[in-house]
Task: structure prediction
Amino acid sequence: MFESSTIKDIARALGLSTSTVSRALRDSYEISAGTKKLVMEYAKQVNYRPNPNALSLKERRSKSIGIVVSEVANHYFSQAINGIESIANSRGYTVIITQTHESFEREKTNVQHLASRSVDGLLISLSAETNDVSHLEQLHQRGLPIVFFDRVPERINTYKIIADNAMGAFEATLHLIRSGHKKIAHISSSAHLSISIERLSGYTDALNKNGISIQPEYIKNCSHGGMIQDEVETAVKELLNLKDKPDAIFVAGDRLTMGCMHVLKKLNMLNPTLIAIAGFSNSDVLDLFNPPITSVFQPAFDMGQLATEKLLELIEAKFPVTEFEQTILNTKLFIR
Result:
């Protein structure tokens, strides 16, 4: 039985500074994945064991995680945050919540601020304006644990938790078709967002499978996801001013659904005999409308819990995690 090596021994053997080795052993995002892998593999090879009197070096964590969402007041995100906190708090982690208000610049600022505060990891749902994720790629490549939920980027390889947006949109559109509507419009968030792409796919699939042609003028995108009411009002009015105006609208977002209903109410058209609505919403407020609005419910609380569990797996892993999966949770159509 030989004595285990020290951090100084590893640093000397690999030609690295002791501080670099120390940070690599505690999986700091300041150290590149390649250096961490080199240090971890060598440490295992030479039987490295942390000094019990210096365990704080390896375990030095802030015990906090950062959350980046568009808006806490959004019913979906408030429920997701409840799920996040239920897991994080039970594991001894505090949660720092930031809002982007659908702004790309605000997202970058929030992420940089959280990273500078040495959070142990990030849970992120992209803003409606975010098309360039290089600011997140840089942190990810440096080893900061990141898990995406709801609105996810394609090119960053990490855990992603989403709802079955395509199926939810398909079922909502199919409900409108079965209710006798053939001229169904679609209002969604930014066209590049993952949720917009998936929900558009479900909408068009339902039309195609029922022999209804897709009308490009019936599809409207709101680049701020409903945060700017004038944007929603413009989209609704453009649809209503069409020569062959729609008799129903499938609205693909919580904030957008509320905004659309507000516009129709203002125009005295919030009546299914004039124009029917089906949307995405986690709000119980829809039950108060007369007539109540059919909507797709996302398991936001469960998504928040699962995203947090995956993030803590990354934070507490002894060796770098290199294999990830995307988890898709079922939605539910509430017919009202």
Summary: The chain has three domains: 7-59, 64-162+300-329, 165-297. The two ends are 71 Å apart (CA to CA). The longest strand covers residues 64-69. Confidence is low (pLDDT under 50) at residues 52-59.
